[in-house]
Amino acid sequence: MYGLTPSNPAARLRAQIAEAEALAAKATPGPWQRCSANDGNCSCGIVWDGAGYAAVMYGNSIENFPYRDGPSREQMNANLDLAAASRTLVPQLAAALRVCLGALEQIERADDPDTAIGTAYTALVRAAEMGDGDGMA
Question: Is residue 22 assigned to a domain?
Fold first, then answer.
């Protein structure tokens, strides 16, 4: 059996999970969405809260982007989509990772690894079901 120590990867991952959760807790509540004006072809660079009432992030419009070798319109739109989606995905992924780490630690400590693996799998299925409909799983 391997003991958990501060230098253990699980401990470092737990610290990263806690950091992601803290950042998400401080942010404007989600979900977020990028501006969809102009039939979804808006390049204003604004990301709105889920209700569409408040801008939570401002970016550069592709027309005003100062560098010729900068991102393409598709890349800028993908960047906005990623920023908007991360508001929901980061907390979901952090929660799933926390479940995974707990399951692995239970397997590590188990006297009966077969039973522990089954229990861990059930916990992972339940964690995935919590995210159904929200973009997880």
Answer: no
What contacts 24+ positions apart, CB below 8 Å, involve 42-49? 43/73, 43/76, 43/77, 45/76, 45/80, 47/80, 47/83, 47/84
Q: What is the mean pLDDT of each run of 10 residues along the chain (137 residues)?
A: 54 86 88 79 78 75 57 74 88 86 81 82 75 46
Q: Considering the domain boundaries, does residue 102 fall inside one?
A: yes
Which domain does 119 fall in, by range? 32-130
CA distances from 101 to 15, 96, 108 (A): 12, 9, 10
CA distance 2 to 47: 45
pLDDT of amino acid 136: 39
Residue 72 resides in a domain: yes
By the 8 A CB rule, do 92 and 136 touch? Answer: yes
